[in-house]
Amino acid sequence: MKATKWMLTALLFTVPIAVQASCESVKADISKKIIGNGVPESGFSLDIVPNDQADQAGGQVVGHCENDTQKIVYKRTGGDSDTGVPADAGTTQDAPSQ
Fold this sequence. Notes:
alpha+beta; 1 helix
């Protein structure tokens, strides 16, 4: 019985850490896809913002995480005037419907 309580307590403390790691891993995966499409690493930024601040972030939403409570926003930082995001940069859930 005591072992179960300790395991439950440990789980409650590790879940928030795992959720944050999951958001960072989604961001890293999207970053790899963008770089793989020829955009230099210094040519863009990805920011994790709360859902209600995604519109004010000044970029394009390319992913989501933490049970859809956070958005990953892409911003082009280079002098290049092309502001488009590679088509396969985000997840399939973020792709525009056709």
